[in-house]
Amino acid sequence: MNYDTILSMKAKNNKHIIDVVPLTKIPLTSHQSFSYLSETEIPAGTLVSIPLFRRNLEGIVLGVRKDFPRFNAGIELKKIDKIIEEKFLTPDQIELAKVISDYYISPLGVVMKNFVPKRVKPRIRNQELGIKKRKNIILTKEQNDSVEKISKTNCKLKIVNCKFLLYGPSGSGKTEVYINAISQIADRNPQLQFLILIPEKTLTPQAIERYGAYFKSEEIAVISSNISKGQLYSTWQKIKSGEIKIVIGTRMAIFAPFRNLGLIVIDEEQDMSYKQWDMNPRYDARKVAEKLAEIHKCKIVRGSATPSVESYWRALNKEYGLIELPKLNLKELGIRNYELGKTNTTIVDMKRERWDKNYTSISKKLKSEIAYALKYNQQIILFINRQGMSSFSICEACKTVLRCPKCDRALIYEKGGFYQCNHCNYKTDIFPKCKKCGGINFKNIGLGTQKVEKEILNFFPLAKILVADSANSKKKNFQEEIYSKFSKGEADILIGTQMISKGWDLPRVSLIGIIDADNLLSLPDFFAEEKAFQSIVQVSGRANRPGAKFPGVVVIQTFQPENKIVQLSAENNFQNFFEKVVEERKALNLPPFGSIVKLVFQDYNFQRVEKEVSDAFEKLESILGVKLSEPHIPLVPKIRGRFRKQIIIKFPKNKIPEKLEKELKKLGSGWIIDRDPISII
Length: 681
Hints:
By secondary structure, the protein is an alpha/beta fold.
């Protein structure tokens, strides 16, 4: 070995090898990090720019080590382009990202992108909440006991369970328990931070109002897809520095750079919105939040009036500490009108309405209750789980359903006179033609928010109406405006979908109308009954709130009043509902007794879809300890021009079988891996 070679090797030894995860999709069969050379040591968590193949990408440093002599001249490492920001991610964030990647079988770089907000300089003022401080609320004995159980637990003791389920009916004062638990924990350690997860952006204004009444506005931040990139980056930095103490956010808030968490609250824990189902990683924020709590050795509380079947089962089996709250005793709290008592719930048989020649979506009972509420200046919520003017439309000549050419889904008639696809936003012109016969006349079938609005205005032309659905929610500041207008009494009637079914506390709401309960039960999915029960009970809970001047009235409209789930929902009988559903799931080895992975393959070529799914099924079929469904076409057979086919995999409630995980990682482009899906149809 000549002298120049020795000198060259020594020079190399002064360099460092940096392991970097590129923020892009890397096949799961490959290493998720790549090695680069650097003249200096770069700490883990640093955001860097790197060359990868023919591109330049951002990446996160995982680790650093001293360079070593490489006698094979063919091994030549590329250099880091530049350091963008040192220690951009915390060690806790890196650990959490690895857990998400492993559990949801998603590339680590794709997962880490969620932890890296766009670095944009915000041109905004500091958030001004502008909320008057409330007087301290006097808690009931049960609320005080709940606060004690949560706040006094020492999570550093391994034998202590720091996971809780707070179960109490609507209006039982769960939010007051969260607020007081945070106050007590913060009093003992002012440096701690707190995360309050909410399922919907529409709940943000009320959450700001409630928490802003008890904590410093400059120490509260909101994280949701509704805020600008500049605001998000600014908030991210303030959380990282410890300046922000209380974070209120939707599921994306779990990625924030917390320094030291003291408590995580998952409000309305039953809500399916906590699951990201439409893009990678397909994570469930509730499950990820539990891991986040373990990393920070902090407490976590799931709260709900209608807990998920899985959460309640875990609480009964001591995996969570079960804390139960009764409905607030208003007399004990000195609140006037304490005698209002129980909500009056009526199930209306819509078949009888048709026999009486009423072909509208509003029953005679609901119509009379709306008239009464309007007369006495009370507010009304009408719940319909579909937007638009209809469910679908058919050609009057040949009865063919008008479908989206890209997704093969029924098009929805909109107020503007066109038909729209809710999956890909495809729109027809004002005069579409039937694909089969060329006809131009269509009959609109079913209900949507816009049709209900039109019928209500026919009956009550002077009523002031707001509509809350996913189409309207895309408008800027929609959440703040709709909550502000309705809470201030600027509207009489709120018509909406799932987003208005939970959380809001508005004492002037005295009437709830559930327009089409059957729509909630129409899907052949094992989650359908649970979703239906939760939706009906949750939206019913918006009436008869503490401080109401009128007793609450709920009208449930259905063509199947004998349906057991409809009846249990009307009775708010969670125990009987839980026993019914758990027995059925146990027999079928469905969650919480087993685990599920949904595999979907999609491609523009149907023959390729058939072959890919068939080949995958053949390989998976040989794995011991798992059960597979036959490959089948899902409820949505085509999205944005791509055909789809799926396989449902079940395995026992424990770690995913090693052979199954290995095969899933081999699946190529076009495959969607959805662990713990919220739907299997």
